[in-house]
Structure formats: C-alpha cells, structure tokens
Amino acid sequence: MNYMPGTASLIQDIDKKHLVLLRDGRTLIGYLRSIDQFANLVLHQTVERIHVGKKYGDIPRGIFVVRGENVVLLGEIDLEKESDTPLQQVSIEEILEEQRVEQQAKQESEKLKVQALKERGLCVPRADTLDEY
Amino acid sequence: MAEGGEPVIIEDYLLLEDAPLLEEMAEEDEELDLYNEMTFGIEQDCTEEDTSKPPMPPEMSPELAKAVAEETEAGEDLGPEAAEELEEPQEEGAMEMEQLGSELEEELGTEDQEEDQEPCEEPNDLGDPAVMRAVQSKPTLESQDSAVLDSRIGACWADFGKEDVLAMDPTVWGSWPGSIPPPHVLEDKAIVQVLERPPPSTSVALDFLGSPVQRGYRGSPRLKRPDIRLVPPKSFPQRFLRQQSPLVPRSPCSPRPFAPPRRPPLLFTSNQTTGYASPTRFQPMPPNISRPPRPLAMHFGPMSPSLDPALFFSPSASGQLNLSVPSHLTQLHPQHQRILTQRQQQSISSKKLWSPKVDPYAGLMTSKEKDWVIKVEMIQLQSENTDDDYYYQTYYHRLEHKQAEEELLGGRNKQEPPKLVTPFIQKVETYNSVVRIAGSLGQVAVSTCYSPRRAIDAVHHALVEEATGSHRLRALHKIEKLFLQLLEVEEMQRKMSLAAEEQEQKSQDAERIYQALKIRACSSEEEAEDEFLQLLCVQKGKKLTARLLPHLSPEQAEKILLTITHHLPFLMKKDVLDESLPLLYSPLNKVVGRMTFSKLIEVLQEMSRPLPESPELPVTMALKNQFGISLLYSLLSHGERLLSSDMPLEPRSGDFEMWTDTVFLVARELSQVPKASLVEPLFLPSNLLSLFCRYLDKQTVVHLEAKMECSPLPSEAAMLC
Known Gene3D superfamilies for this protein (chain A) (predicted)? Predict the structure, then answer.
C-alpha cells in the first residue's frame, strides 16, 4: 500500500533483506534496519559479496551504516528465490584470490591499451580523473 | 511469612530458562490443587518455602504475588515463593528486582520503589484460604507496573526462540482460583476505584510490538462487563491491519509468545457472566501515532493506587499470544484448560509453517521514527518550484492527463487522482542562522533541517576564484554559479503572468548573468585566457549559454554568436570528446533567424577569415564538424531567405560582395572536401541549393547536390541555373 502516491520511500523496505550496490563497486547484502531522509542506511548482519565470474564469496561484516549518497542502487532480496542462483559460492580466500587475479588482468590490458593509444598519438583521459574535481 | 497454608497464588508467567516438562507438570499439579482448593475449600498444605527468603510481615497477604525471580527457580517453588516475595517489604521487593539483573531494566527497580505500596492492612490470619485478600497489601509487582511484564517481554525478546515459554502458558493460564473477587474485597475503596476506572481509550494496536507496557497501563478492565475477549489467532493480524493508520507502515508482526501474567482475580466482579473467551477489543490506532512503541522501554504512567488492574493487560498480552483461551475469567478445570491449550499449540505450530521465523531485531526503527522520516519526505514534496521534484510532478501531470482523457473518452465520473496529502508544515522561508535575543549576550544556535547548526556568524568571505589556481576549476565554479542564476531567470519566465516589473526584474537578472560571462567578442587574446571560451569548453557551460540565449537581448545574443563563430575552430577542437556543441545549435539558429543582413555578413566573415596556425579555413574545418556545418548552412540559408524575400535589406557597402564571395568560397570548399569527411548537418535547409543555383553553374550545383545529399531541386528552380 502506498499511502504516498507518486512517491517512493524506503519505509516499506525496513527489516527486509536487501542488496545494496555502492559507488565504490562493493555489493552489500543485509537487513535494512533504519533509514533517514537522505537514504542513509543501517544494514544489519551485513555480508559483503564479491563476484568474480560465476563465483562469489561472502565476507560477513556485521552492521553497516551507509551514507546515502554512496548508494548506487538497492533492492529487496526475495528470501525464497535467494537460493536458486546459477552462481557458485566459494570460500573467502578463494574469491579474494580470484578477484586479485581479475584486477591484475584488467590492469594489464588497460596498460596495453593506453600504450597503444599513446603510440598512435591519442590521449584518452581516464574516466575516473573527471571525478577529481 | 504467611503461615497457615495460605493458598499460594501462583504467580504470573515465568520465564524459565528451560522449561522442562516436569516443571510444567509440577506446576500444573499445583494449579490443580489450588483450583480444587478454591473451588471446594480444601485445606491445602502449604509447601515448605525456601527458608532463605527473608521473613515477611504477617500482615502481608500472599495473594498478590510478584513475579520475581521465577526464572531462576524451579516451577514448584513458585507458589510459596511468590507468596513470600509478596510479603516482603517494599525495599526487599525492590532489591529482589535488582537481583533479576538482566531481565529487568533498571528503571523497573527504581520505578518499583517509586510505586505506591499500599501498606498491608488486613491481617493475614483469616482462616479461610479461599478468601481473597489483601487488596491493600502490596500489589503484585506485575500488577503495579507492567514494566515487569515488559521486562518479561524483553527477556522473551532476548530469548528468541524459546518456544517453551509458550508451552508454559497453559499452566499459567490455568484455572485461576476465584476469578471473582469476593464481596469483601469490593468493599475496599481502592479496588473499587481501580475497577471502576474507565476503560482505556488509547489504542492497543501497533504497540503489540513493543509497548505492551503502555497498553497495559492505560487499559483497565471494565467492571460491569468484563468483556475481555481474546482474539483467536487468525483474526488477530487481520484486525490489527485493518485498523492500522495509513501513516504507519506495517511492521512485521512479531507474535512473540510469552506467557501473560497471571493476575489476581480480584478485579472481576461477581456479576461477570462471561466465562468465555472473546476476542480482545482492539481499539483503532489513532491516526497520528504519538507514542512510539518501545520494545524494551519502561514506560511508567500513573500508577493505580492499589491494584493496578494489570488484568486488563492480559487481553492484549494474550492476544499477542494468540490465545483464545480466556484467562482468569473462566473457571475451566485445569485439565480442560490443558486440552484447549494443547489444541492451540498445535494450531500455532502449524502456523509456524507459513509465518517466517520471527526476527528479533525487527522494529529497530520505531513507528515514530518512520513517521518522522515520512514527514520530512512530505515536506520536501511541498514546493512551489516545479524544479524541486521533477519525477513527482511529472507523475502527477501524467496521471491527471490520463484521467482527463479517460474522462473524455469514457465519460465516466471524474475520478480524482489520489492526491498526496502532505502535512501542512510551515516552511520557513528565511532561515535566520543566528538568533539574537534582546538583552542576551551572544547568540543562540538555531538549527533546522536545512542547516543543522550554525552557532557563530562565520560567513565564508574568501573568493573562491582567487583561492583556486586552476583555470578549469574556476571555470567550473563560475558555471555553477551562473547556472543557478539562470535557473532563477527561467523560473521567472515560467510564471507566465509576468507583470511589467517582474519582466524587468527578469531581464535584469539575465543581464547580470550576461555581464558575468564577460564576453569579449572577436578578441585576439589567447583563447586560454578568455573566460567565456573556457566556460564554453565545458559541456555545462554550453548548456548554460544555450539556455541563456533566449533570455538575452538580440544584440547580446548576436555578440555571443559572433564570439562563437570567431573562435569556432578552437571550440570545435575542444569539443572532440564531449560533442556537445550541437546543444548550441538550436538557440543559435533562432538568433541567426533574426539577424540583419549586415550582421550576417559580419558573422560569415569570421568563418572565412584565414587562420594563423592552420592552412585550413574555418569554413573548411566547419564542414567536418557537425555543429560547424549546421551553423554554416543555417547562416547561408538565412542569407538566402533574406535575399529572396522582398524585405529591404539595408546592406552596408561591400556586403553583397562579401556575400557572393562567401557563397563561392563555401561552394568551392564543399566540392573540394572529400565526401567521406563531410559531416551530415543537424539540419539541412532546403533553400541552399537554390542559393547555389543563383550563383553557380548547373554542373556545380548538381555536383554539390550530390555531395550534400540534398533532395533534388524542383524543376523551376533548376531552370534558373
């Protein structure tokens, strides 16, 4: 029931399990316990989920207080459907290792790209530098 | 200690850490005994109490037992101990409270001390054990103060998962001996007072989660019609939901089972006829929930003088329990009781299949807090300025349009779209950051949600432009500042009914922005130094200019156009990444459309001016840029329009030559530029070919036509060539 037609509010989402994507790329899963007008979130029994390929690993984090502006999106997790996922859960160590490998590969390919462009006289500014202002 | 085999009133529910069946049974047996005794007046042997308990004043009656320290003791000790505890002096009672430790919150202890403890008046040596007495005696801990109950609830809360407690219930609820207060009790003024207290007016509803305390308090049994009805499990949530205020969202129900306290049966009159459970009367929640349910809060209201009719509490409590078994109203035989409750348990356990496991951490955010957040959100929606919440406004416009259409088509009754009723909150238009109270020293901090705290009058004086060294940063900052001003201008524009002075105001504001832009047309200065150009290098700067153009006077707009055209190569180069120059096309097009011929020539001159650094002409470069080519075409098209119209052109000397020169130049460049690098313009004016026809031979025109991918000329026009 939306007693505020035309609006969206997180009030209805309280005490439900949510997946929250942060601006730094982290994925948090936890029970949304409290909000405020800035959509700052209090997440309970939070788990940070790292995805690499078809695998994922959960790191239990406890209670999170997330500043609203850092949230990209969040959505409720259907507890029944939560388990049927094609992804495979692995241990924390394994997923961290996989992540490290993936980052390394990405960095190397990026480096090659920049090098190739430089050779051709092009200088593509990296997207993240725009954020520096 | 009351000797003489006083019937021990087994105290209210107990939170046993473990509730072995044995204990239950033992309790049940005790209850049975009690029941029998009460009913049939059988002398009961008083079981030996714990001698460790301090001696009690004889005048204390055992009836009002306190629910204290049960959780640590076995069930069988309950009765006697309860009696003992009851008879303890007040301080000891308090002390005992402290002993409970984690179970009870601190306030409880203090509260207890604060409570009125009626002095015991009646001697406890009446022979008849069945006689209920001691209304005046120290009231039960629980009866006095549902904080105890609350603590029980709290304990239950913490002890999530102890279904045993539920199992305890039947025994607890067992036949309460003598649910009818004996006549002599009613003579006691205090009791009568309490009993006659009007029933609670406040609601019970949402607080189920957390403040049974409050509910407990305000409820009081109805003397005449002890109509305490217990909701059968199924109907409970439904009713509750129905009566919920729209404001308060549904919090997850947490039917925490806990044993409701056993209340002294004194509170019920003899004319009570209902011995049957009926659902609790739920009172609808007030629309504005002022009281937040506080799960573990000790909420102490005015205490009843003597007996707190904590009995009233039980309905809600038992409602929470989903017990349809009546409490002390009934005089069920314990075995009957047991059967009933067993049945209930089964139903409850079957319910567990569908209801998710109760979340002990739920309800962290109280409904008061939720309401507050909702209120803040609603305030944000209240705004005159349509810019503030675009989605909300758009949603409503669309909804209204749709309904209007439906109305037209269907001819149905006008359906009002559900309007969002926002609470009327006086929005403080001006925020006085610092309030100076006359005659006081210093300032008072005024905080609103717009500005949390401003204790001192510190105003930021440093000029940001000087502070920051970077050109780009300065440019960005300037853009932001001007954009805000532009928004204000547009806002004024939007208010269609502009009075004369408002229009004046608007143009003044626009002028101010224009001045701030510091446009120096056709400056030969280094482009990096030109502030306006730096602004134009940023996409937002282009947007700013594009939106500003309609509000400027024609001269100002033309000056901007001139500047842009003059520095076109520079701008085009800078725009390679962004590709946001086309933003400017539309407003500039309009500007061009209003220009005089002379002005047009002036602009075109800029495009044909040879560049110092590059062999290419601006025209040529423009042909390779979408914005450039579009602008060029637009200029040419306008010129052609002016020439072919009958309007007097008032050209300056040399204008026409310039014009023809430009046309030839463009034609030449167009034919020379390879098709591949020719960019498609944003808009291709239709009169370009006729323009070329005027000056060029047919062959060239055809060639250009192919190049430009124009639609072929109509035959008459072609004839001119």
Answer: 2.30.30.100
- Average model confidence (pLDDT) across chain B: 64
Section B622-649 average pLDDT: 87
d(CA B158, CA B136): 34
String of DSSP letters for A45-105: EEEEEEEETTEEEEEEEEEEEE-GGGEEEEEE--TTTTS--S-EE--HHHHHHHHHHHHHH
Name the β-bridge partners of A48. A28, A59
Q: Do A5 and B374 touch (CB under 8 A)?
A: no
Q: Which residues of B touch A (CB under 8 A)?
A: 246-247, 249, 251-252, 356, 359, 361-365, 369-370, 373-374, 376-378, 380-381, 392, 395-396, 399, 417-420, 449, 472-473, 476, 577
Q: What's at B654, amino acid-wise?
A: G
Q: What is the distance between the alpha carbons of residues B280 and B317, in angstroms, rounded to a whole number? A: 10
- Indicate the residue type of B660: T
Q: Which residues contact A45 (CB under 8 A, 6 or more apart)?
A: A30, A31, A60, A62, A63, B361
Domain encompassing residue A15? 7-129
Contact B207, B282 (CB under 8 A): no
Examine residue A96 and state whether it is found in any structural domain, yes or no. Answer: yes
In one letter, which amino acid is B385?
A: N
Task: Choose the closest CB to A37 out of B373, B395, B396.
Answer: B373
Residue by residue, DSSP assigns B231-266 as --TTHHHHHHHHT--TTSPPPPP-----PPPP--GG
Measure in Å the smallest separation between the Cα of B462 and chain A Cα atoms: 19
In-domain check, residue A39: yes
CA distances from B443 to A16, A60, B430 (A): 45, 48, 18
Quick one: which of B122, B47, B57 has its CA closest to B81?
Answer: B47
What are B70-110's pLDDT values in tens digits?
Answer: 444 444 444 444 444 444 444 444 444 444 444 444 444 44
Instruction: Output the domain CATH number for residue A65.
Output: 2.30.30.100
Question: Which residue, among B146, B132, B114, has the nearest Cα to B61 in the 3D structure?
Answer: B132
